[in-house]
Amino acid sequence: HVQLVESGGGSVQAGGSLRLSCEVSGITEGTYCIGWFRQDPGKEREGVAAIMIFGATTYYADSVKGRATISRDHAVKTMYLEMKNLSSNDTAMYYCATARLCNLDSVRSWVYWGQGTQVTVS
Q1: For 6-41, how does the pLDDT look when each residue is reduced to its tens digit (9 = 90+)?
Q2: What's the N-to-C CA distance of the chain in angstroms?
Q3: Which of 70, 80, 75 lies closest to 54, judged by CA?
Q4: Please, are residues 44 and 99 in contact by the beta-carbon 8 Å criterion?
Q5: How far apart are CA 99 and CA 107, in angstroms?
Q6: How far apart are CA 95 and CA 47, in angstroms?
């Protein structure tokens, strides 16, 4: 079965950077995209970045474009999200997820989710 385990969250000073990791296992047939979402309490979950499993095409939300880099290892066992120039707006629980398509605007289309890792920027 699909397992996604996030790590790398914590407290970061404004202007700093972070690197999140997502250990990926059990990806099923028909899954072509893995990505990062985030959610702050009281707000809707929003897509941050995604990467195709085949070909490695990347997608970014406007809110992080130019500050974030999503990547994965060749075997698609680990996915990363690097973000710089962090602000309090980036404070959230960050989740990794899998989907058939890399549609960051459709949370419902993402099938499997990790438990999340908290990022707090102060």
Answers
A1: 999 999 999 999 999 999 999 888 889 999 999 998
A2: 37
A3: 75
A4: no
A5: 10
A6: 9
